[in-house]
Amino acid sequence: MTKRIEKALKAALLENGEMSHGLYEFDLEDGLDYWRDSLREDNDDYLFAVTENSGDVAMVLFEKSGKMHINEQAREKLHSYWAGNIYEKNMKNLIPMFAMELNAGIIPNTGFKVALVA
Question: Cα(47)–Cα(12) distance, rounded to whole angstroms?
């Protein structure tokens, strides 16, 4: 089961696959306030969560400013924050962990801070 989830996440997050708005509504909408609070409490700059069900994937990304992005827009924003090959490298590391959490019934989320390089 984990390998199937991992395959769906790779297709959506690394191969620019289509994401499901219905799955976003079903799996992620109920957690929006929780993740917004987590972003503030941890003083992160951004936080994103992903989910998968029957091969469909959905994603939400929050900015510290309060803006929220869903699915492909969230992926594009995250890609812009993790420029160059950083996005691909980070996703390759995160996807196996996300798949295990999803298989266990947990919606994975990750907050992060942006470091400015001089």
Answer: 18
- Could you give phi then psi for residue 12, rounded to 5 degrees? -75, -40
pTM above 0.70, yes or no: yes
User: For the segment 53-83, what is each residue's pLDDT rounded down to a tens digit?
Assistant: 999 999 999 999 999 999 999 999 999 988 8
Question: Cα angle at 95 between 23 and 117, to 5 degrees?
Answer: 110
Taking each helix axis from N to C end, the angle separating 86-103 and 2-13, rounded to the nearest 10 degrees, works out to 150
Alpha helices (runs of H) in 14-117, residue ranges in sequence order: 21-23, 32-41, 72-81, 86-103
